[in-house]
Amino acid sequence: MKKSISGLCLMMLLALMACNTPNPKQIPEATPYEANWESLSKHQQSPEWFADAKLGIYFHWGLYSVPAYGNEWYPSNMYQEGHDVMKHHKETWGDPKDFNYHDFVPMFKAEHFDAKDWVQLFKDAGAKFGGPCAQHHDGYAMWDSKVNPWNVVNRGPGKDITGEMMKELKANGLKTIATFHHARNLQRFKDRPDYWGANDSHYAYNPAWATSSTDPDTAKLYGNIPAEEFHQYWFAQLKEVIDQYSPDIIWFDSWLNLIPEQYRQEFAAYYLNEAKKTNQDVVIAYKQYDMPSSVGVLDIEQGGKKDLSESVWLTDVTLSHGSWCYTEGQTYKTADMVVRNMIDVWSKNGVVLLNISPKANGIIPEEQRTVLHEIGAWMKEFGQAVYNTRPYYIYGFGNAKVSDGHFGGQSASTEYTADDFRFLQSKDGKTIYMFMLGKPEVGKTIETMKLIPCHFMPATPIKRISVMGSDVEVDWKMGKRVFEFTIPDAPMNDIATVFKIEVE
Question: Which of 51, 98, 249, 474 is most exposed, with minimal Cβ within 10 Å?
Fold first, then answer.
């Protein structure tokens, strides 16, 4: 039956596609980037491959994985009087005066770590890039370092975790990421216990009263060095990872603003100039206002934007409830929650960086593997609607109650249902993908005005609507103001069903 059509305006689609397609900012090949924001802003902060990738996986894994209690802030909290972690530490390991954080080093053996297995798991989950948390706030380096004596090769498992992962990721055609959280490592307030409160670890990650902080051997681990020396040390570790592994993305946690602007600019110039030598289109990811938006990609932790963004952005979310690192008794989000929230991110021009939590011995718990495989099964079935796509002119519509995220935007734990819809489109604008964030009810009729960009006859018609995965056609009609379609009797996905809308 020939369907009457009305709805999508070709002129608007083309204009919107033009807005969503980045215009690469060129810098002459012979001209190096200089350490100032004007020069650094000439690079394309979000390369095409990054907008295409949609999903990456990384992991919080280090010395804090040994006690497996509380969270990755264990090395700070274990020194704070009255804190639950200090109580646990005393009961389990002894008084911090006798058993310090660095005493966990010999216990971090990573004996079951297998880079090939981990990377295959990342691929099976649908990730297009991956890598390690190269250094958390605790000052312990997850690579073979000559700059930082406290690293996985010299003190710990005797394995270059970052090197092995980067090599295997590249061998499998995945892009690479190294995340850095070490801007917080310096004991900035050790001489000011009254500054913001002596027990506020958020302002002094390594408490000044840490027993080991007077030991010169542990000075770099605990950030107990002069500020100027620390800032040089911060930069030197970044240069080392760039020189040894050439990551495609360098990602920074919050509080990067505590590093003087000069060093942030010198880092960016060094990274971008080295990337030119290796012919890489790299990404610098930052949080809050720690870098100019013209230089890097904004990351929103554990959340996302509430509306469609003109620029590509990133969110880092963890698979677990609570801690980012492995802890005993840890629980995890379900695959449907993770995928539906990822679809929401993608529909708003975002990219997802998903965190997993390996055990200290290098085993990724089976519960995490199960969720990743479920995510991967969905991605395999509907990847055409995800990878290499761009946002539609609206992100979608629905009834989900969205709560505010702790770090801005909205929460990454929003509960979506089949009454919530999201959109993406192919780069050429000829296919629109409509996601129902749940399992639709067969025979139900959906009426909406949200698909119609204007209330006039369209310049381009809809040719066909089908259910992805079954190719069953959908009965639909469109009047001047209402688009209506009926859910057909076809296999539907429990996580999210995708309808493929083909336009001329």
Answer: 98
